[in-house]
Amino acid sequence: MVRYRAAPRRMSGRGGGGSVAEPRHAVVVGAGLAGLEAARRLARAGLRVTVLEREPRPGGRAAGIEILGVRIDPAGPALRLGDATLRGLLADLGEPALLEPWPVPGLAQLREGRLEPIRAASFGGVATIPGVKRYQAWRVPRLSRQLDRFLPLLDRRAPERAVRLDDRSVADFGRLYFGESVLERWIEPQLAGFTLLDARQTSRVTFLLQTGLGADGGGASLRGGLAALVERLAGDLATHVNVEVTAVEGGPSNGLRLAAEGPSGAGELAADAVVLATPARSALRIADPLLLPAERDFLRDVSYVPAVSLSVALRSDVRLPARRVLFPAVEGLPLAAVALSPLAGPSDEVGAIASVLPTAAFAARELATPTPELEKEVLAIAERIAPGLLGATVFTQLTRWREAMPRFDVGAYRAIARFRRLQAELRAAGRRLYFAGDFLVSPSVEGALASGARAADQLLADLAR
What domain range includes position 28? Predict the structure, then answer.
């Protein structure tokens, strides 16, 4: 049986009979992007950090898959040049150039069966999207005034600051301010294609936080993919996989004690502080002995949309029309996006990976469908907008997530604000339990990283008191 235990906090000095303090010990539960970013920041600050991950590999939804020597990112993540936390992470790693802007055209949209390139990072570009009515396109600059007015509230690391805007759905907001054609051809496809969320339920705060306009609004790719970034981060940390944390409870000297089950059996681990970087329901289960009723209610109410992704390895002679293709619902196809990525590593046969992402509604209906049937169905849908796709395919890989993206329905940011206020009170009272995850910020890679950064900063500030 393995016993996971923290070392004593003090040790004898080499000189006289004095002693020196050992680094404080922090345990991060969950090795997804939020957990790895939290752990990286804590380790950089001098803490002793242990990362525990229940899956065989770190990364969560960002974990890559290798097939025939080709590495793929099944989630087809959407990144922007303005993702500040991601850019800061890459700068700290000495690799700022890994974030590459999409070439032109980087974004396209389906319009009456044809793929049309669009320039959605500027107001002028939005106005020229095929299908947007001219008299409604003239309203698009209203968004600039909205963003300028609410800019102090739109904090991507602390989205609950925009709680006063959490009163309309994206659909109601778009229809009221811009008109039906702008909603159908720009707002809804952007939201679904980048987050899988439904504009009819999602809070307008999510859209305002995610809107990519101006110099930092363009799409971007990560050279080597998210999987390579995950490997780099996990390799620099004390990361233990196949270890499931079953409970976190109070420990001696105001510390915490974790119960865990690993390959060698059950064990315990003591820590000065714990960051739970897991989906909300997992955090609820693990931390239940320490939680107040209001915390339990918040975590229980967090919901997610499911997702299905079909990764299609394309021959090296296939030309990519764009890096991401969006599908307005009015086109009648159950697709949210197709993400196209040049191959991260050398391959004689494969030139690119296409991640075909059906809508969340399609995924919810088809989650239980056997893999061969579901793969065939998704390929048939993709073939309708890219004739000849089957003939250009080297191999395919189907991936499913029951909990893919957190939902941010109207009222979600009010709930986050209440949860954050309660966390601040408990931290002030001495509790050293922290939460990280995209469900606290936004449904994106940047949201996951920003939540991990915030949890780490709060932990360090508390330990410094």
Answer: 21-56+241-302+408-463
